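Submission checklist for the structure archive. All mandatory fields must be present; incomplete records are returned to the submitter.

[x] Identifier: G/U mismatch-specific uracil-DNA glycosylase
[x] Organism: Paenibacillus sophorae
[x] Residue count: 180
[x] Sequence attached
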Amino acid sequence: MNPVEDHMDYGLQIVFIGFNPSLRSGEVGHHYANPRNNFWRILYRSGLTPRLYDASEDGDLLKLGYGFTNIVARPTRGAEDITREEYGEGRELLRAKLAEYRPQIACFVGKGVYTEFSRRTKANWGFQEGMDPVVDGVREFVAPSSSGLVRMAMDEIIGIYRRLNEATRERPDPESDFPG
């Protein structure tokens, strides 16, 4: 099964980073394609997207300033199927992607994704204040996993993503000062 293609570009507001693609995502070639995954509903209900998008439209979110990647590219049934070697290699590849593209915010979709990447033992929901980011200049935000297996109330999950939305609205667009 092929890895799901990253959607990355320069000047993005947010890059969403998952563990790895699901088997369904690997089959169809789009991020968060498992129908039991709540990612697209969470983005819409938190105000991050103006409408409910489908996984097949993941590339269209580049126009909104959002990109997608994973710490490990290989699709699996679950994160427990990822090897230590894959995490090690993925950590370096992800660091290089963030250093090259320099999004304003790296949003880790799950605490485990962040702790695997940062090698820190714990994380709080939201921005990782008071810690040096792994990649200078890229703010780190930890959000709950959107998997249907997560045992957190949906309203609580949406509230955390809403904080991400509010933070993007508070920061002025650096190009807005230039006449167009």
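[x] Structure attached
Curator remark: The domain at 14-171 is CATH 3.40.470.10 (Uracil-DNA Glycosylase, subunit E). The mean pLDDT is 90.
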